[in-house]
Amino acid sequence: MQYDFDTILDRKHTNSEKWAVRDGELPMTTADMDFKTAPEIMDAMKQKIDQGAFGYEYPTPEYFQAVAAWYATEHHAAAETDWMRFATGVIPAITASVHHFSHEGDNVLLMEPVYNTFYNSIINSGRHVIASQQLYDHDQHTYHVDWYDLEDKLANPLTTLMILCNPHNPTGYVWTKDELIHILSLAKRHGVVVISDEIHGDLVLDGPDYTPTFSLPTEITANLITLVSTSKTFNLAALHSATGIVPNPILRERFDRAINKYEAAEPNLLAIPGAIAAYRHGGDWLHQLKKYVLGNRHYIADFLRQNLPDLHLVPGTATYLIWIDTSAVSDDSAKLAQFIREDTGLIINPGTYYHGNGAGFIRINIAYPRKQVEDAMQRLLKAIKDFKKK
Ligand SMILES: Cc1ncc(COP(=O)(O)O)c(C=O)c1O
User: Fold this and answer.
1) Has the keyword Nucleus been applied to this entry (predicted)?
2) If you measure from the C-alpha of residue 318 to the centroid of ligand 1, how many angstroms do you get, rounded to a whole number?
3) 3-state SS class at 204
4) 307 alpha carbon to ligand 1 midpoint, in Å?
5) CA of 201 to the centre of ligand 1 (A)
6) Is residue 56 one of the residues assigned to a domain?
């Protein structure tokens, strides 16, 4: 079946957080997609609604089997269903883990620039962020791990936890298997628990697939909690459903206690049927979606090359978020983003949200029908020209 990614959805006044904007504005911010999810998933949810009785739910064995089958077929990665626990979202699982696996005043390690909500999970819990900066190559527009710095920060006795983003948001970088093994080995050597957020793992648009960390050799997964979800993959963020995959049985019991203690372990009425339908029947939709979003990425890369050569697209191969180096135009992306919005109504995320060297970058969500992407590029072109004239 051919799915439709071209129709523009009218999401204003639909309680969409992203679309709570002024008339004429085009928000390309929060990471949800402006596409309808797969009809197979909607059918499963409608059936559930039609039952009419909405009592307490639990994650069924079929749910965990669907997760395991998905990772086996989609990523050639084996996970036992016993390793899995249901959680009401990746962020709720991370926040519960921060509380449970570290103490007030401890350091939680991040690799900056990185997804902004991690900071809330850490700081709101009274922990400190300790950041290892990814090194930016200004010629290639690529990032690299600063291995000495990373190990130094892992070795700090106050560092008890690390949150890894695999693949990385906002750069779209897909960590190689060797890099993951190295990161996990270093963390293990220094007794640091690693939470690997793999919410974008199904969205590798091009090139080699990502490596699900739970599938790595057991010697290095002893300290590992992997978090996966249908949320980004199938545009089901509001479903509040995620899975923790923890190969080490002792750590798994502790994770289980964490998500139960912080009430992040019970599914809502649509989470289980929606996620099962997604994993069982959403594959074709996802594969077509990835081609479409890759087409958007290519379109934008060409557009920038031809019209805005001062802007450089960081060459990530995953996620529907693009990370653009705007440092030749402004060293303050918060101001730049505000100008772009006021000048043209295009709303994008300033890189400052993601810390690190984000002041020289903007992030744009490109999971939109092509016509809206074209519209966004015209607005960006006008805004950058006007900004330079200031
Ligand atoms: C890296 C990353 N983790 C987690 C989330 C949110 O996860 P959830 O909605 O399951 O809490 C996002 C959403 O943008 C994300 O990009």
Assistant:
1) no
2) 14
3) strand
4) 32
5) 12
6) yes
Question: Which amino acid is residue 15, in one-letter code?
Answer: N
pLDDT digits (tens, 9 = 90+) for 11-67: 999 999 999 999 999 999 999 999 999 999 999 999 999 999 999 999 999 999 999
Q: What is the pLDDT of residue 390?
A: 83
- Please tell me the distance between residue 115's alpha carbon and the centre of ligand 1 in angstroms: 8
How many Å apart are CA 9 and CA 64, to the nearest integer?
A: 32
- Amino acid identity of residue 363, one-letter, is R
- Å from CA of 13 to ligand 1 middle: 23
Rounded Cα gap, residues 321 and 300, in angstroms:
12
Q: What is the pLDDT of residues 260-311, one digit of tens each?
A: 999 999 999 999 999 999 999 999 999 999 999 999 999 999 999 999 999 9
Measured over the CA atoms of residue 21, residue 25, residue 31 and residue 32, the dihedral's sign is positive
Rounded CA separation 96/163 (Å): 13
Domain identity same for 261 and 293: no
Residue whose token pair is 């990530």: 316
Q: Which of 98, 117, 210, 233 for a ligand 1 pocket mutation test, highest count of atoms within 8 Å of Cβ? A: 117
Determine, yes or no, domain membership for 13: no
Number of domains in the chain: 2
Shared domain for 385 and 314, answered yes or no, is yes
> pLDDT by residue (tens digit) across 234-251?
999 999 999 999 999 999
* CA 287 to chain CA mean position, Å: 18
Identify the CATH number of the domain in which residue 210 sits. Answer: 3.40.640.10
Asked if 241 and 347 sit in the same domain, the reply is: no
Q: What's the chain's average pLDDT?
A: 98
Asked whether the beta carbons of 123 and 177 are under 8 A apart, the reply is no
311-369 residue pLDDT tens? 999 999 999 999 999 999 999 999 999 999 999 999 999 999 999 999 999 999 999 99
**83 has pLDDT over 90:** yes
Q: How many whole angstroms from 21 Cα to the centroid of ligand 1?
A: 22
Residues with CB under 6 A from ligand 1: 31, 89-91, 115, 165, 169, 197, 199, 229, 231, 237, 242
CATH code of the domain in which 303 resides = 3.90.1150.10
Instruction: For a ligand 1 pocket test, name from 91, 233, 235 the mutation site with the most ligand atoms within 8 angstroms of its C-beta.
Output: 91
pLDDT of residue 219: 93
Domain ranges, residue 347: 26-38+283-389
Do 234 and 336 fall into the same domain?
no
Shared-domain flag, residues 81 and 116: yes
Q: Which atom of ligand 1 is nearest to the CA of 200?
A: 1
